[in-house]
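User: I'm writing a tutorial on reading structure tokens. Could you give me a worked example: one chain, its sequence, then its tokens, then a sentence or two explaining what the tokens reveal?
Assistant: Sure. Here is the example chain.
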Amino acid sequence: MAFVHGKNTYISLDGEDLTAFTNSTTMNRSADALDTTTYGKNSKTYAGGLKDGSATIGGIYDNTAVTGPRAVIQPLIGATVEFVFRPEGTGAGKPEDTVDVVVTAYNESSPVAEMVQWTAELQLSDDVTSAAQGA
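And here are its predicted structure tokens:
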């Protein structure tokens, strides 16, 4: 087992590389647990149901007119686009998750003693394709 540093993470949304503006990514995946308990049982039983998930990305605000997070993400609110997450960075054999997402929110915060920050909320839509990156 080898530990992996997060500094190499790659993020893209709707084909736009947001890696240079992003410093945190959380990808949550879950599934429904459907109650299948019948009479006579002493404990509940379950069957797996539909999968679900969400992702949150965020980082340091950059006012770059065409490629910054505001310019890229804000127009995507409410749209379904492709999200690519490479937790170990880019390279042959490294893992890559690709999924369609609905961009549900884009937020900016301006703390008085810090840099302006941004976050985006993404709702996973359909199956996540997890694969090793090609050569």
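What the tokens reveal: The chain has a mean pLDDT of 96. The beta strands are 10-13, 16-17, 22-35, 46-60, 80-86, 95-109, 117-132.
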